[in-house]
Specification:
heterodimer; A: 414 residues; alpha+beta; 2 domains; two-stranded antiparallel sheet; 16 helices; 12 strands; elongated; B: 226 residues; alpha/beta; Rossmann fold; six-stranded mixed sheet; four-stranded antiparallel sheet; 29% strand; globular
Chain lengths: 414, 226
């Protein structure tokens, strides 16, 4: 039927205040969706980058036996030295590492308080670490480790918690490759402000040659961290090159995701969160639109009876309401996109400071300090299509009620 | 021609059964200007609704040009009303968000005519009912009489075979009501459209060329006038 769109839009303007209130409700829901998704995706993206820069690189090469038990960081599952040679020959950026655990003991002068706490220790090669990691760049006090230096680099939050300062002596009680206990006597060489809260809170970095002596590693190491690309998904060509280099060594490559199960789990949970937010938007839109359409139905029952008497089919009539509802959805979507865009601009540029909260809560995300949003163009398309689609769809169901009413009852309706 | 044969209709309101029509027989020829008169509750609106295919009968038949319209399904009835019938309501029932022009054109939009023809026919009928220059006014900017003229134009614009008017002057003062009746009669004579209108107003009955009186759901009197 002709003129349906015009009629629908004129009706939209009939109750301007109601139209705006409903549109605002839809806009509010869509804005929430846009900013929360932006924040979750932004945090997720930043976490990925931080894991790659400060924890795992593009991934690490270990022996299959090491991987089976990687959470207990076994020192006896060392890599064949040929692995390193082949990686170098293939032109792959890599560095050797040894992860282990220990107790950090701090007591006596000059410490203000004495105590000990369990820490994760990473022995790194200062000469090649910056080929894969960016730790050197985040040292804010003191200096990064030098080869053979009997020092440690710790995160700012760990330093704050223990009261550590540059030059303070500390001990690391560790177990050697053969299971005997050893105490490493070291001093604080550097403090770094690492954007990765896991590193900033609980990891102690030592020089690999120093660790080698204490742990009785005999020049062997357990991990070879590699950097294939700055992107979380390295190009297939780089992966093929790596796999070619590892052929016959018995070692295997595990991507950064494999080393950060907690983050992967929460990133998966994010999808559920985004779905929950969308469900909330649907609910808000459903209540708002149902209410608006029902009120319109009641107020215009006689008018609708007249239209049906004149020969308008139920389908045409429902399409009129569908256009009205879609119009409200369109207004709501546009407002929601504008509000969402403005709020997101703040999130992208300034962000939200959750630093103190994240310091005490290990929730899987690797973001310290400020959480930033990112621009997700697809969310704006979802908001537009979703807002219009949801409103139109709901009105289609609500107006079914009208078609069940007799025309004569409509005409008599007061 | 409209042939109404032994039509009955009963409404149930709560526990009460109201026999609105108790077996009405009536034949209406093309081009008649006929009034269905009677007091409140006599069944005149019910009869009009049944002829207009907006209500369903309990028994009997209504044939329009030999077609058993009572037997059509919902969408076919809508299509039939769209093409064959025009309606004029007591309270005008114009669409408040549309102008006079758009209200009239609405009937043609239903028929999916092209825009040029819609414009020509709408402007012509509005001029015929005396609303030239008021095409762009919305209903709230028109008097009751003017609104009813728009409703008449809307019913006539598609050249329907039959126009059904339920108490078309009930909401108008006597002077305006008379003007409206004169207009309806003029249109009946000019276009040959069958006008069937219900009323309980004596002045309105006087304008009818044929007066059918209903009482308690039965035809009490059927009188043709000169």
């Amino acid at each position: 039927m002709k003129g349906l769109v015009k009629l629908g839009f004129r009706n939209l303007l009939r109750y301007k205040r109601r139209t705006l209130i409903t549109a605002f409700a839809v806009a509010m829901g869509l804005m929430m969706f846009i900013i929360l998704d932006s924040l979750l995706m932004g945090v997720s993206h930043e976490s990925t980058i931080n894991i790659m820069r400060y924890e795992s690189g593009s991934g690490k090469i270990v022996t299959p036996a090491y991987w089976e038990d990687f959470k207990s960081t076994p020192l006896d599952e060392t890599l064949d030295p040929a692995v390193g040679e082949k990686l170098t020959a293939a032109g792959i950026a890599w560095t050797r590492r040894i992860d282990f655990t220990g107790d950090m003991i701090f007591r006596g002068d000059p410490w203000e308080e004495s105590g000990s706490l369990p820490v994760a220790v990473t022995a790194l090669d200062p000469a090649s670490d910056d080929r894969v990691f960016d730790l050197k760049q985040v040292v804010t006090e003191g200096h990064f480790l030098s080869p053979g230096e009997e020092g440690v680099v710790i995160g700012q939050w760990l330093a704050e918690d223990t009261g550590a300062k540059i030059g303070y002596p500390l001990s690391l009680r560790v177990k050697t490759r053969f299971g005997s206990e050893e105490v490493m006597e070291l001093e604080v060489a550097g403090i770094m402000d690492c954007p990765d809260p896991y590193v900033n809170t609980g990891v102690v970095f030592v020089d690999i040659s120093v660790a080698d002596d204490y742990l009785e590693m005999d020049g062997l190491y357990t991990q070879a961290a590699v950097k294939l690309s700055t992107s979380p998904q390295p190009p297939q060509k780089a992966l093929d090159n790596l796999n070619g280099a590892l052929k016959g060594t018995g070692a295997e490559f595990h991507k950064w995701e494999d080393w950060s199960e907690d983050f992967v789990a929460i990133a998966e949970g994010k999808k559920t969160s985004a779905f929950s937010i969308l469900s909330l938007v649907v609910l808000i839109a459903a209540i708002g639109i149902s209410n608006t359409v029902l009120m319109s139905l009641f107020e215009r029952t006689r008018e609708l009876g007249m239209m049906r008497a004149m020969g308008m089919t139920d389908g045409d009539l429902r399409r009129t309401f569908l256009i009205e509802a879609a119009g409200i959805g369109l207004i709501g979507s546009i407002i929601g996109m504008l509000w969402g865009g403005a709020a997101n601009l703040y999130l992208v540029t300034a962000g939200i400071n959750y630093g103190s909260l994240l310091k005490d809560m290990k929730i899987g995300y690797r973001v310290s300090g400020i959480m930033h949003g990112i621009w997700l163009i697809r969310d704006y398309f979802i908001a537009l299509a979703g807002g219009v689609g949801i409103c139109a769809g709901i009105s289609w169901f609500v107006t079914k009620k009208l078609t069940k009413m007799e025309i004569t009852d409509c005409l008599r309706f007061v | 021609m409209i042939a109404i044969e032994k039509v009955t209709k009963t409404y149930v309101s709560g526990d009460v059964e109201v026999k609105a029509l108790r077996g009405v027989d009536l034949t209406i020829q093309d081009g008649e200007f006929i009034s269905i008169a009677g007091p409140s509750g006599s069944g005149k609106t019910t009869l009009l609704n049944l002829i207009g295919c907006i209500d369903t009968l309990d028994s009997g038949k209504i044939l329009i040009d030999g077609n058993p319209v009572y037997d059509l399904d919902k969408d076919a009835k809508a299509l039939f009303r769209r093409e064959t019938l025009g309606f004029i309501f007591q309270s005008y029932n114009l669409i408040p968000v549309l102008t006079a022009f758009e209200n009239v054109a609405f009937a043609l939009n239903l028929l999916d005519m092209d825009d040029k023809e819609i414009r020509e026919r709408t402007m012509a009928i509005l001029a015929e009912v005396g609303l030239q220059g008021m095409e762009d006014r919305r209903p709230n900017k028109l008097s009751g009489g003017q609104q009813q003229r728009v409703a008449i134009a809307r019913a006539l614009v598609k050249n329907p075979k039959i126009i059904l008017a339920d108490e078309p002057t009930a909401n108008l003062d006597s002077h305006t009501g008379e003007d409206i009746l004169k207009l309806m009669r003029e249109m009946n004579e000019k276009h040959g459209t069958t006008f069937i209108f219900s009323t309980h107003d004596r002045m309105v009955m006087d304008y009818a060329k044929r007066l059918v009186s209903l009482h308690d759901g039965l035809i009490q009197n059927d009188e043709t006038r000169s």
